[in-house]
Amino acid sequence: MTAPYGSWPSPFTAQMIAQASPRIDGARFVADEVWWGESVPAEGGRVTVRSSTGTEILPAPWSARSRVHEYGGGAWTADADGTLYFVDGADQRVHRLSRGGAPEPLTAPGPAYGGLRLQRGRLLAVREDLRPEPHRRAIVEIPLDASAAEDESAVRTLVSTTGFVAHPALSPDGTRLAWVQWSTVRMPWEQALLHVAPVDGDEIESMPTRAALQPEWVDDDELLYLDDPNGRWNLQRLRLGHPADALAPADADTGGGLWVLGNRWYQRLDDGRVVAVRTDGADEIVLISRDGEAVELLTLPISAAASIDDSQGSRVLISGAGRTVGAGLWCVDLDDGTITTVTGGAETDARWVPRARAVTFDGPHGPVHAFDYPPTNPDATAPEGELPPYIVMVHGGPTAHVSGAASTAYAYWTSRGIGVLDVNYGGSTGYGRAYRERLDGQWGVVDVDDVIAAARGMAEAGLADPERIAIRGGSAGGWTVLCALVRGGTFAAGISRYGVADLRMLAAETHDFEAHYLEGLVGPLPEAESVYVERSPLSHADRIDVPVLLQQGSDDRVVPPSQSEAIRDALQARGVPHEYLLFEGEGHGFRAAETIIASLEAELRFLGRIFGFQPVFHAES
Hints:
four-stranded antiparallel sheet
């Protein structure tokens, strides 16, 4: 059939997108089974734990979700006997669930826990206590006998700080602890130290690292960890008392922004080989020999959001997504080459789900990297001469990354005849420290310049209708949306999800983890207050002259509703067409199926009105 772009019938409904490709949240070998965490959008985004036997290990209403550092992570682990240890999202206490039993608390009410690691029969965790001033974080050991369920003092504190900690790792003999630590005034990708200390002592040794990640012990005196002394995160090998040296260095990143606890970018096998993620735009998985001299690229469908979750003998569990497959979890046997899909990972239909095309544009600050998803529908074509509307997607963070994975969420748009351009603007990870630091002091400038350069590049190449390009982003991406609309002249509409509108308001209201983030992105207060005012979209809302859709979670503690409501009020005062949707019970990011459905359908209606097409919500309509 021939129909205008945007009005093509599509089998991808908002209901389908809400249920598609649940998020995989860690995986472990448990005896002869594989367990993994998985979000359940139909249950408000609850995170359950499932087994490869088809069993749900963590029943409703329990949810394995941590709020340590606000973004959480590492909310569950398990032992070889099938005992699950998890942080319940409702009370942030650690619970134990034995096979056939019911969850029972192991910690007392009050602090939050995350980053759980079970090592040599000892349960380690990162604890965050927001009751004292200043707030405190610690690496702790939690008794497995439930003695700490009523008595908080029974939890053993191994490390305590007013800063931040992550990645606790016990030496094989259990006498030393290694961990990553950073101060409240720096972000972990800017500067994070590797610390080593005796478990029963106070003599902390700080290693001269730049942005350390994921220490793992080789033996009682040797460590592997990640760092970027030369501008790319690579594996480092450290014999205590000696300088570290890189293991199989590459012009790619094994590592990323430490937003959540429990990330795993590599696993060391028992025989000394290492399986690792390498990212240069897209992800790849490599096998590194014990001495680092041989590096083998593994043939896997994974090219985005890769995580090396666990290892057992010659087998590893790897989660992620790819250009041709949806999010999933795979078990790879490195000796016999067997690749088994544990869950998800279904191959997408290229007739409906476009393969992302890596593109680069010239920007005023250097190259701008992006992934293009063109309109794709085997049953529809546009009238001759019509150019497609496009949505420029702006990821959050801003220290984050997109990798061009196949996406049914993007197929919701492309199958209807709306192209998607996913931009890794300056400040994104995955291209090295220099690309990441392009945003230092320039948030609201470089990111805006880059998304404008990408949008104009698509129009100049004849791939997008220059009069019908919208911009959409959440959180820090929502900030870039609003800043770009203030700049004007490129985008015909904007969609901001829980976006930042006023920097001073954000600085006053945001949580501990990001309390000083703005100092690196913009400048210190009060010295840079004039810059905060000048950069903020709220200061220049009178320059926004295109329609805006604002969406917000009522319980968002990272970017509170006051931000979206301030820009809403400014648009309303000037009569600029806009919509404001407040989703009750949602935090920073939409998890509930009903929210995802309502949000997507509102966005499609919004763009239909602006771009002049009649949306088709269901293929049979």
